[in-house]
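Morning!

This is the sequence you dropped in the shared folder:
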Amino acid sequence: MLVAIISSLGAPLIPTISAVDNVSVSDAQWSLTVTMLVGAVATPTMGRLGDGPHRKKVILTGLGVVIVGSLLAAVPLGFACLIVGRALQGVGMGLVPLAIATARDSVPPQRARAALSTLSLTTAAGVGIGYPVTGLLAQTLGMYAGFWFAVIATVLAFVAAVVVLPATPQRPAHPMDVPGALLLAVGMGGLLFALSQGQSWGWASPRLLVVGSVSVLVLAGWALHGLRAAHPLVDLRLIRDRTVFAAHLTTLMGGIGMYLLISLVTRYVQTPSSAGYGPGASVVVTGLILVPFSVGSLAAGRVVRVLVRTQPPARLLPVSCLLSLVALSTFVFAHGGLWEIFVTMALAGLGVGMNFAVTPALVVASVPAHETGSAMSFNQVVKYIGYSAGSALSAVILQAATFPGQEFPPESGYRTAGLTGCAVWAATAVVGYVLIRTGVRGGSVRVRDTRPAVAGAKTGSEGLVPGTGAQR
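The structure's back. Tokens below.
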């Protein structure tokens, strides 16, 4: 839930931060960008550290850093202090894969699948809860109230972690892949930075092309290094498994489709009626638009729990993509009233929720237990790239549709962007079906463990991976 809280303190508060700290909107955008950048780097690093014998210490240290960052952001010491605080809060983005790895080791096998789905769904459901709460706090108590709320939530999480988290299973500690961490930090940070600055720099500007090209080359170097290293930051050899590769690819494409819709909807509902089509909703109402998204995501968790009794998780992934496709189609062809957009977001929440509930089970079932944190960390990083790309894609399409001298794009621009999102979700469904179907045999996902067994590691009864029904 902390990831949802940290994320919700970004986009909704950008106009308020600009006004309170007397900076431009593009500068205020850094309150969101810096969190994503730090999160993209911290997530795989914390995931690798958490795969060793010190996972609880890594989680508590991460929570401690988030507490410090939340305090810095909550005190009115200026824009620079706020940015530093938001950067430290980005460390909290790396806690999700550690929580999933802890659940795999600690929860009884018969409850593991439901636990993994619930943990993954909280990040999606929290978006719809965090946005209206953030808007309401900012409107009634001021901008800093949301950051104080983050301080309280993080302190409670820290206390709960101290009391509840079990000791980490005994596993050998491997040396940290420092070169790999640096290469990933530079490459991933540069790529996300380029995506976040595309609208202000111009998507065809030379400096954007240079930053993007260099970042891609650095990431290619990181991949080559990882394939040769004995203990890489992220074991890319595991991606050779069809199921793991498909899960990461559909997560990337699904992130693009999800944030494309969210960016379109939040911008559309705030468009004034003077533009000829918008409802002119307030920031609080815009946040409430995302509540059905949370409700749909939570409902998806229940639906998946019922369906997996008769259907393997792999078959549910294309279904989730088709639901998201229906949601975007609804927005394209029926968005005249707010009630229609509420229906759209509920359908989107159901589709994205099913996707988020199924993907962790596919990844966890296909990697060794001692690689869970690293594999899920990479999945989170891929998700962040999809989020940034989806947000940027919506901005590019709407900007291209806006006539010179006009403040708002025509309604046809939203239709074009929506149809683009439909194409993304259709392609995601095809990728998931084609790549994963060959890994489904007899209703379970086959596991190919290419690493040596770890002494004392638990695999559940009768050689099954906990909570998946998959034979190791």
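Headline: Confidence is low (pLDDT under 50) at residues 438-472.

More detail when I'm at my desk.
O.
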